[in-house]
Design brief:
Helix content: over 70%
Largest sheet: none
Distance between the termini: 47 Å
Number of helices: 13
InterPro entries: DUF8198, FFLEE_fam
Number of strands: 0
Structural class: mainly alpha
Shape: globular
Order of helices and strands: HHHHHHHHHHHHH
Pfam family, one: DUF8198
Number of domains: 1
Strand content: under 5%
Protein name: DUF8198 domain-containing protein
């Protein structure tokens, strides 16, 4: 079986999301994603402000949590899976595994946020601007705690894989050699998705450490939301 076959299942899940066919869900989803990004920047302000963390924090915000060009990226991934036998000769196995994990996380983030968007449309049909209290109550109502913790576990796994597989000089050299082929066959968006990940890791001594610090705070937020804390999104100490 092709190592890229799992991407077919992920894309099928992605294209089944409701927002592709319902503009009102898309609009609210974009509101939720924007709130999420602002909330993470506020909650993790201290960690994100450290010089060596800036690029990775931007990668989290703009790539793994609802990047604006994910539809275009998904189209390129679908094309890639049609030529899996050729792609697997060019892309190192560990890069495929780690890249697939990143795609899985990005899709799961959209899936969970779409659920939030649809609940907001039901509870607040006039579409008022989002507030922390609206989001807190919506999270409680949806009871996404288990899924959000799974999301964080997958993120921890990605952090370990980034350190284990993607810091190799040989892997990065092989990846850079693919740039010409990516341009020739119109896979630039996918290449940039992975390239940004490499660049974000470069200033870090450990991607796993960055991720572990991030997910520790996020787990506290999940726990506070479901414990009824009236201010669960406060900044990390």
């Amino acid at each position: 079986m092709s190592k890229l076959a799992v991407l077919d299942d992920l894309l099928e899940l992605y294209y089944q999301l409701n927002y592709h066919k319902k503009p009102e869900i898309l609009a609210r989803l974009q509101d939720v994603q924007q709130w999420q990004k602002q909330r993470m920047q506020h909650t993790h302000a201290k960690q994100f402000a450290e010089k060596h963390n800036v690029l990775m924090s931007e990668y989290f915000i703009n790539r793994l949590y609802g990047g604006p060009d994910f539809d275009a990226l998904a189209q390129q991934i679908a094309r890639l899976t049609r030529y899996a036998h050729k792609a697997e000769k060019l892309i190192p196995d560990n890069a495929i595994k780690t890249g697939t994990s990143g795609v899985q996380l990005a899709i799961l983030a959209v899936q969970l946020d779409e659920q939030v968007a649809m609940q907001l449309l039901e509870d607040y049909p006039s579409n008022p601007p989002l507030t922390d209290e609206m989001m807190r109550l919506t999270y409680l109502k949806l009871d996404q705690g288990k899924d959000r913790l799974l999301q964080l576990q997958l993120l921890d796994d990605l952090g370990r894989n980034l350190d284990k597989y993607m810091r190799s000089f040989m892997v990065y050299t092989a990846f850079k050699m693919c740039k010409g082929a990516a341009s020739k066959y119109n896979f630039e968006i996918m290449y940039d998705f992975m390239q940004d990940g490499f660049l974000a890791m470069k200033p870090l001594k450990s991607a796993e450490k960055f991720v572990r610090e991030f997910t520790a705070v996020e787990r506290q937020i999940v726990q506070r939301v479901h414990a009824g804390d009236p201010n669960p999104f406060r900044p990390a100490a």
